[in-house]
């Protein structure tokens, strides 16, 4: 296959120490296979901490680290200091998207449709009627998300969240159709509708191979009217832009009971496993896994050039 990546030594960063380690290892393996199909000399690096070894021969780092350290700007800062080009967003974009409180603030400032919310510090009283969602600000893959539908569920949910962070996010629960929109550069990929079998799109429902139960059906493209499709795409792109993202992301959206789009969050290192949503959306647009990885690299290198100007 004719590719600019032919012979290029690419380190695929995966694993990590976050709660999403298992997913990241699978993403890394899928990415490595795709890059090798493009002729790249790709190899995996299981990142165990911030002192990970990156061989001097590495010309590019493909970041497949999900969760803390991989998505929050930490590994990006290390790679910048090493002078190694890498995939995905830069330090600031990564930090903003990973922090649910900062994301919410930017969504509101930019007029992105999103559920009303409050931030809560340990010891403060929550004045919000049920139903609502309690979220740990800096987690991924729906880890640290607790839906409270009855008042007597609140104490346990808050206790779990505060065991992971001193400041948490509590937002109004929005019911409706669960949708996700992959974005490459400024292009929205086909919308996917997710139908979890019980509960919401939790970690277990996302990754059925974890043997923790759970499952979800995906429909791509989602069955939406032309107007609904346009509205959801516009909301997703608005969220992507509000965080000043340039490369790629996956935006989670609820189409509520009034047929209005409500943005939940933005993921800057979405999964690349066999059950992941971004590759599924890309495939529906006629973009293979190899083409997706190649395009991510191209956009990432373009971002790097623009950021130096």
Question: Which terms would index this structure?
Answer:
309 residues; Rossmann fold; Dna Ligase, domain 1; 4-stranded antiparallel β-sheet; 9 helices; globular
Question: Describe it for me?
Answer:
- The two termini are 33 Å apart.
- Helix 1 crosses helix 9 (289-307).
- The protein folds into three domains: 9-87, Rossmann fold; 97-113 and 175-296, 2-Layer Sandwich (D-amino Acid Aminotransferase, Chain A, domain 1); 117-172, 2-Layer Sandwich (Dna Ligase, domain 1), CATH 3.30.1490.20.
- The protein is α+β, with helices and mostly antiparallel strands.
- The strands form three sheets. Strands 8, 9, 10, 11, 12 and 13 form a six-stranded antiparallel beta sheet that branches.
- The chain is built from nine helices and 13 strands.
- Helix 1 (21-37) links the parallel strand 1 and strand 2.
- Residues 201-213 have low confidence and may be disordered.
Question: What's the quick description here?
Answer:
It is built from nine helices and 13 strands.
